[in-house]
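Supplementary Methods S3. Input chains for the assembly prediction are listed below.
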Amino acid sequence: MATSVSVTSVESGSPVVNALRIVPGVLLLAGIGYAGKVLEKTINTYAKAHHWRFPNIEYVLWAILIGLLISNTLSIPRIFQAGIATYEFWLKLGIVLLGARFVVADVLKLGGISLGLVVIEITLSLALMTLLGRLFKLKPKLTSLLAIGSSVCGVSAIIAAKGAINADDEDSSFAIAAILALGALSLFTFPAIAHGLHMNDVSYGLWAGLGVDNTAEATAAGALYSDAAGKVAVLAKTARNAMIGFVVLGYALYWAGRGQAEAVTNKATFLWKKFPKFILGFLFISLLVSFHTFDKGQVTSLGNLSKWAFLLTFAGVGLRTNIRDMSKQGLRPFIVGALGEVLIACLTLGLVIGANRIWGL
Amino acid sequence: MATDTSKSNSDGQGAWLTLDAWAVIIALLLAVAVKCNIFHNVPW
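Predicted structure tokens for the full assembly:
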């Protein structure tokens, strides 16, 4: 089943050979990301010098657009594939380093609000997607995968759930394609709606973190609005990612109860196995900063290293989005996903606006 | 382009170190490098 992305694992072999295999693709990610940064600066400078009224297009969007252009007009040679697949590593590295830009008090306050909203969002999203799946007569396991993907954290959650509920490859590919296609659309719709509603950075960041499914897209959607919004989007998305184990465990128990998945013998081990461990790294760096382990300049350096890592991720988001491949997927899962996503986006927007009124974000 | 959903590079099944672990290790090494001023005033 074709989808937009190759998440091929690094094949086993000598570590040196594996490291060399990723070099061309990583250089391509870095080149595209840097080109996005140069384009932003050049166009802004040119527009300013010539008194043009040109909208400020952030490097994030340029990097995604260049990636999209390449992946949809050229056939990317195989030599680049392994390196392009590392975009997920750069995303996680960026998130861990982003811990430097939060002191623990911020994490507790915003993370606490995020966690509360995440629990509501997950409960409502799961119910909504299950209902839509039944209405549109989708296969039950495909419905489960779409519900998990749209409520928790996109592709990672679907991959984590696939083995746990014994879903077949076709169902998981459908669900992944739908989540990625909708994630790509959210990059353009979320910032536009938020600008229309004059949302502040924290509210928008929370909305992007709660409403956009895949972590890379949620990070990009946040950064497209502003640097501060990007920071909050990552925190909210991380809180959502932390729930992955509980949701997948729930579905694993459900399907095991129906004799259609392996029984879960040890729930604690299951939860630990599914827990995204990079979150611990994020919290550890945040803790180090809170105890003044780094001076101000060093904190800025760590924040900038995080931005460089995200730059490669954004290039990867564009490169792995192939519109032609996405259009080959069945229409029904996409419609169910789209309907669900629109409703979840409205719902999370309502939640964030409500939270803003209560806590004054 | 085929999506290999049989293996996850996020949970790193079969790999000797998971992607999450790599991300944390590299981030900590970078943090040490910044602390020791090996990386000084990283530009953006």
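Residues 15-359 of chain A form one domain. The longest helix of chain A spans residues 15-49.
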